[in-house]
Each structure stands twice: as structure tokens, then as C-alpha cells.
User: Fold these one by one.
Assistant:
Number 1:
Amino acid sequence: MTSQALPRPLLPDWLLRQLRPMSIPVDWTRVCAVALGIGVPQLVGLLTGRIEEAVLASVGALCASFSDLTGSYRYRLRRVGVAVVLGALGFAAGAAAPGPWWAAAAVLAVAVPSVLSSRMGDLWSSGGAHMLTFCIVATGEKSATLSVVEQVAWFSAGELLLFALVVATWPFRGTAPARSAVAGIFDATLRMLDAEAPVAARQELTKALNTAHDVLVGGGSMSRSRVRDRLYLVYTHATPIVEASVSLVHAGERPSLRAREALRTLARCMRTGEVPPPYQPDTAGSPLAQALDRGIAELVSAFRLAKHAEVSSEKERVRLTFGRSTWAQVLRMVLCLALAEGIGLLAGLDQPYWIALTAALVLKPNSGSVFARTVLRAVGTVAGVLIALLLLSLVPPGWWLLPFIVVLAAKLPVAIDRHYGLFSAVVTALVLLQMSQGAEFHAVARLVDTLVGCAIVLVVGFLLRPLHRGPQLEALFADAVASVAEYVSQSLAGVRHGRPALRRRTYRQLADLRGALQQQLMNPATASRAERWWPTISVLERVVDAATEKAVRNNPQDLQQAQRLVSTMRTTTRQLRSTDVRPAQLHDELERVYAGVAGR
């Protein structure tokens, strides 16, 4: 009897994953902020008859909403604040252009710092992208009645409205989905330990783990912050706890009340941001109960170390130098935008900016596979145009259209997190409906412009492909570990001359490594491999932070111990360059180095 081979899927696995939306919980603070930020200007415009000003304000709120991603309260304020400032600058540059050719020149000029900002961290990368995006929007939405100053003022008013709404989320800062998702792991573990039907409870625990993974790793934004990194650290350390708990349930054993209370405390601390108290494992009880205690103790210890790590040097992690790959991204963006603007101007299109806007959105740096984004942008735009055409054919402009604008605005934060194609569909339909309130807007023409912009990106991206092949992850980590080893050597030896410059160079190299990994995490073809390397970045940063603290306190380490730590890192560097080092092995080695540097 012969076995039949399973049919092969028509699409590759990575593309199928890219087409599948992530199941990420809704952040209601963002939903409410964006719905009000975009809906209120439209409402005021309808009440006062100042539709053009209302459209500009709602577009400004749209600019700020793109940067409002789930994270800590301070992180959200900083991210939206940077987007408000840079978005307004980009819009002013586009609105001030006196003619079409000057507008094209302004777009190309803004494109260079926009791409370079992608190497300066997540906040500046996001702000730089919005600076370019809304510079292009301003070149296409010229007002015949408002001055440039008035246009920029109304646009900025919409941005500031959204920023004020984000500020107002302070009372709800502890309910962010990332915190709740990680806390849900411990809640589900406790329910499984107490459940009469352990199989169903085990399935709920699996669902909680999958949800936490999607929120922390699989989201479309992949924004990074200290809080998010600490939550990811907890997620990775939760595995021994989950395994021990499942084993206890399978064996019919009950964990101690002390362990249960520790799990409840962890769930509460994940939601509020508090630091859990120290936990010492119990040597009594069965081997499975001891394994659960050890898992809790290791997680608490790792979290406390990460929480109390020196963070004053975070400002050093801004990328101030640019390599070959960065200038290749600049060249690709400028070429695509030059072609897009040239085609729009030479073809005599009524609103040529939409082609350039498509190219800028697809080529946004640090956003993963350009091919996948191009395909999803095209598919999403087609869906968005069809939605807008349907609504515009059935619903008259004005008051009747306002509820649909508010609903689409509320869907925007969910779409950003879950799927780029879904985001493209929602934002396309939303912009078409917004513009239809103030002027005639040709939806079908925008669809053609989008497809032309996608074609430009695919052609130019294919021609410049050899320029984007960077070094392997092992080589990048080897360079980073070597720099950290050199810095640790000088810091622990009490060397003062040249140490600040070396510290800045080390942080820049770690920021470059983080950016490269973030790019691969956003690419579904390489995401699973990059994820295995991700926890190591945080350990390297903590090693540098601990060494900095020793140097600032003028507390040199024991010379022999310092030499052993540095020797371990240099051996690891050689192994990364010559052999196949597993990410988990590197992570464990660096954790031991960190414990030695920090004196733990």
C-alpha cells in the first residue's frame, strides 16, 4: 500500500503567513483616541461649514495616529510627540512648494533625512516616515483659499488634538494589550492548576501563550521599548513555569500555596508595571513542585535585573553614522520617488502625488519584506477603493457619511497591528471618504496610481537587489560582542581615556544590530530565525549598562575575574565567526557574563 503525498500549497509558507492577520487584542485607548481625533474635526466642520479646515485637521490627526502604537505611557507620548513635530515640518515643506516641479524637489529633499532617520531608533524612524508621507500629501492637497500658514496651522491643530487624547489615556495606561497578554499567561496557568477539566484549561493556556507571542513579536508595528523588551523577557522565562505546571497537572499533584500566590503576584505586576518581590525556591516538595519554584525564582530574578538595569545611557543608542546599506536605502527611495513624480508630472495627471505616496509607504525603512508590502498594498488599496466607491454611491456626502468615517478611524489602530493589507484597505477607504467631504476625489484614478507606484517599487527594488545583501546575523553578532568585550575590558580595568568614545561606538553598534534584527523580524521569510536571536540583544545592552555603572562608580573589578569575563566574550566572538553557534547558547554565555560584570 503506497502513501499519497500531501498536495503542496500554491503559495510559499512565508507568504501565507503574511496574508494571515494576527490575532492581537484590541487596545481600546488607541481606538477611542483615533476615532475622536479624526471624527471631531469632521463634526466641527459640518457644524460650522468650514469643511476644508476640518479635512486638514483630520488629516493631521491621521498623521499622529499612525505613530500611536501600544506601549508604555511615556513611550506613546514620545513617539506621538516626535511624529507631531516631524509630520508638521514635512507638511509645511510640501505646502510651501510654489509649483509642481518645486513640489517634486521638496519631496526628494525630504526623502533623504527621512530614510537616514530610520537608523536613529524607533522613534525617529517613525517620525521620519511621517515627515515624508505628509510632505507628499501636502504637495497634492493644495488649497485655493487658505494660505500656507493657515494650512499648516489646521494640520498641526489636528495633530495636537490626537496628542491631547493620547495624554488623556493616563488612567488606562496599565491596560495595554502587551501587559495584559503576558499577565494572561499566569492567569491561564493558575486556572489550569485549579481546573476540573485540565485539557480545556491547557488549551486556554496555549491560546494565552500564542496571544502573547503575537502581541510581542508578530504585530505589524514591531515597535520596541524598554517595557516591551522586559515583557518579552518574561515571556521567554515563562516556559519552565508552564512546563512544570503542565507536568504537575498531568501527575495529579497540587502546587504549594506560596507558588500560587507568586503566580498571582506576577500577573498583577505585569499589568501594573510593579517589580515583583524576590522569590526563593523551596527545597521541599516533589521534584515537579521544585521545578515550578525554580522557574518562578529565575523569572523573578531576571525581571528584577532587567527592571533595575542602568538606563541612563539609552540616549547613546542613537545611530549617528550610516553605512553602505543605509545609503542603498536612500538611493532606492530617491530613485522610486523621482520616477513616481516624473511619471505624474509628464503624464499630466490631476493628482500625481498618489503614485509617490504609494512608493513612500511601501519603502518605509525597517518594515520588512518590500515585495510582501507591495503586494499587500496593492490588494489592500483595491479593497479600500471598492469600499469607498460603494459607500459614496449609497451614502450622500455630509452628515450621513460621518458615522462611516468614525467607524473606519476606529478600525485603523486594529488594522495597523494585525495586517498591513488590512491597514492599506482601511486607510485608503478612510482617506477617500475624508477627501470627498471637501472636494471631488477620483477613487478609480487613485487605484491606477497605486498600481503604478507598486510597479515602480518592484522594478527599482529588483534592479538594486545586490546592494541590499547585508552580512549574516552571526557576523553582526560577532562584531557586536567584540565591541562589547573591548568596552567591558576598559570599564572594569578603570581606564578613563577614550572610554566615552568607545561607549558611544558600542551603543551605536548595538543599535545597528537591533535595527538589522528588527528588519528581519518584520520579514515573514526570516522572522522565526531572527526571533531566536532577539533576546540576546537585551543581554548585550545590560552588559554594557552594568560595565558603565562600574566605571561611573569608579569601582574596578577584580583583575583576574575581569580577564576571565573578557576572555569568555572574545572566545564567543571567534566561535561566531568560525562555527555555528546556537542563539540559546550565546544567550546563556552572555547571561553569565552579565552576572559577573554586575556582581550578581
Note: Confidence is low (pLDDT under 50) at residues 1-8, 219-223, 310-320.
Number 2:
Amino acid sequence: MLVVVGLVAVGASLLLPGALASATDAVLGGTGAAKQVAWLIVVGGAEILADVVGGVVVVRVTSGAGAWLRRRMIDALLAQKTKTPFAEGDAVSRMAGDAVGAGGIVPVVVQLVSAFVISVGAIVLLAVLDWRLALVFLGSIPIALLLARSHLRNTADDVLTYQRVSGELAARLLDASAGLATIAASGTADQEAERVLKPLPRLSLAGRGMWRTQAKMVWRAALLLPAVELAALTAAGFGVLDHRLTVGDVLAALGYVALGMGLVTQIPLLTTVSRARGCAQRVAEVLDEPIRERGRLGLLPGSGTLTLREATVEGALHPTTLTIPGGTFTAIVGKSGSGKSTVVSLLGGLTTPDAGSAHLDGRDLTILRPEELRAVVGYAFARPHLLGTTVAEAVGYGSWAGDTAVRTACRTARIHDVLTRLPQGYHTPLTETPLSGGEAARVGLARAIVHNPRVLILDDATASLDTVTEQAVLADLPARTLVAVTHRAALAARADSVVWLAEGQIRAIAPHHELWRDPDYRAVFTEEAG
């Protein structure tokens, strides 16, 4: 539809000077001018209608393309799971700004192609009217091409730099927003503001470069158009004196010159093209990020045995081999940065190893159908993100659990009494639910329990609970494979086995009471407690 509207606008634009010339000559000649005036009105009305409809279609095309690109980026980011290289703020910037910028390229290209067709058509019609006028006009084309070349060369780097620095600013701002309470408590607002705004000079430099180039292009194009019109008008005047042209022909010639210079007046759109190209490059970086092929095989029968075979994560975990028997309780301990979360992320299939493999009951996690894997592996985090409209939806998120199952899971997580005291109980909107950190953690724990998974992984999910509540929760969990990251000796003591990590590799695997003899092991809990 955009192309059709563009063709109508091109045709009307090229016909309008001729229609104006015919109507003018007919009126000045004193003959009947009704047909010529009517034709002028029809052509002018068609051009106006095409402009109006084109404006609406441009908005629809731009918004539709932007939404399509945004959806593709969201799908790609979710498919990358925890290994995405894009910071949260940068990803938001790419989805919010770059998707729209790249999505607007089609209307801009159609507009530039239309301007080119109109310019070529105007030159041809000008030559038909008087070849001398066409020669005068053609003398301006080399200058126009030099302007366009200079504009593109000078603006490309500034545009891309501006977009990249904008994404960096967004990432820093989002990080700071997430830690507002910490910033306020530490009294570091000024330092944090300085950190967030550190890329601002580079942004300003790129922005000023863009606008300097744009301003230079605008005034040069603004001088070129009247200069060419003056030259054409002078040549047309001699044509009138020689009785080769009429007054109407002079008006038509000026109209064709203006149309022929339309491509020059559209040169600032090349900045938009350059910006759209930069946006498309940033969108493509997200879409081109490698994603492992989706698994197609189902689960094998089993009790939830987890296995790592030479599993490696670059910069976080050395080649690691580990087996956790089904139905057992295993604690993962180690100092900060030792690789605890990396190990459980591999065991639960949230992260794919760079080398080696992870298995559940003998089946490689990478070839399992994702929906089956997520149905049998429950995950709870220390600071969970609660998703859903109401509290009940937040607990049942990602499952088909009904009201009874949701309430049972909340009782197990020791959060039921808190939720029933809310204004609308379990149906209280999540945005109106004031939950402390510990209460939110228990809701997240209930969300993991409600799946009734074969394997339950607690990534420090009970850290905010008091010891008594933690023991009560663990005692009520149904028999299943349980893996818990912890910094508490009491919880490690309850486990059947403890995996002790140090500097990205397993240092020992044994019951807590055996490892406790090692002073370095005891120091793990002393450091964490401190």
C-alpha cells in the first residue's frame, strides 16, 4: 500500500506543473478554461490525498515493523537464557529505540526512491518543454552528488557512536535504578550519578557532530535550490522573448525545477538512513547471537539423577565432573566467586556449558525438549523476580497449578499466613503487595515447589529465612532430588552430601561432618557469615 500511495503521489507531482501551465494559458488566453482548471483541481487533490494517506500508512508500517523486530529480539534474548552478552539496560535500549529506528527504513527508502523518480521525470519533462532548460538544470547535479557523498561520509560514524553510547547510558541507569536502596543507604548518590553519566561527553560529542553535519547539509541545499531556480528562470525568460515558451510554460518550468531538486532537498533523509542502518546493526547483533538448537527428545524415566561430565564455563568453572544421585539432598558450598551458582545453573539447564555436558537421568539437557525440562526442574532464587498479575499467578507462574496446589505450596514455603492477610488474599494485585525480601523469597520458593518437580534447585533461596523456618521448610519438602547453594553450616549439615567448590573447581565431595575437620572448609562459613 505504501508503494501504491507513493506511485500516486509521484504521478500527481509530475502532472501538476503541466496542469498548472495549461490552466494558466487557457485563462490568460480568454478561451474556455473549465476543463483545464478541473484537471488542475483533480491532480492537486490526488497529490493532497496521497500525502494524507501516505502519512497514515507510514505510521502503520513503521510501528508494525518496529513491533515485529522487537518481538524477534525478545525471542532471541529469551532463547539466549543466562548467557546473553547484552546488559539489561542495553537490551532495553535496543528493543525500545533501535527496533523503531530500523523499522522506519522502508518508508524512508520509498520516499527517497519516489524523490529520485520525480527528479528524473521532472528532468525529462523539462527537456520536452525546452532542452536548454534541461541543460541548465543538469549543471547542478554534480554539485548535489558531492553534497550527498560528503554528508553520508561525515555522519555515519557519529550516528553509530551516538546509538552505542545511548545504550551504555541506559545500561548504567538501569543498574543504578535496581540498586537505589543500596545507594541511598551508602550515601554514594553523587558518585553513582557520576558513574552513570560518565559516557555523557562522548554522547554529546557524537550528537554535536551529527547536527553540525546536518546543519551544513541544510544550508548548502537551501542555497543550491534558489540558485538553480534563478538560472532556470533566466533561461525561461529568454525563451519567452524568443516566443518559444508561454507564461504557463515558465510556471511549469519552475515547477519541474523544484521537483528535480526534490532529491537534493531530501538529502537530510540520508541521516535517517544512516541512523536506521546503525539501529539495524544493533538489532542484528542480538538476532545473530548464536543460539543452540532446541532439544527434541523427551525425558527418560528416573529419580532425578544429575550429572556433569567435564562441564566447563569459560571464566567461571574449570572442567567439572559430578554426579548427584536421585532422591538425595546435596549442598553446594564455597566462598564468593567459587562457582556455586554456575554449577547449579548447569545442573538445572539454565546455562549450557562451553564444553562438556550436563545430564538428567542419563539424558543430555541440550537435547531435551525445553518444556519437559522446565516441568521437572524447579528453581528458587535468593532474589526472585515475581511475574504475574496477582499473588496467586506469581506462585503458579509457568505451571498449570490450580488454587489448591498454589495454597499447598505456599504452606510448605511458610508464606500462606502472610498472603491470606493481604486485602484480597491470594488475588491481591502483585503491584499492591508489600513483600519484604524474605517474603518475596518464600513466594519464589513456593513457585518452584508448586511444579512438584523431579529436581528442586535452591540457589541460596533460603538465605533470607531464619534457621528455624528454613529447617521447617526443608522438612516439609516431598522426597525429591534437592540441590541447595548455601552459606549456612546448619543447612550443609542436613545434606546427604556436600560439594565444596573453590576457585571454579571441586575441592571435595563428602558429608558435612567429615569436611568440617578441614579448617579451610570451616573458613568458608566464617567468611560468609562475616
Note: DSSP finds 22 helices and ten strands in the chain.
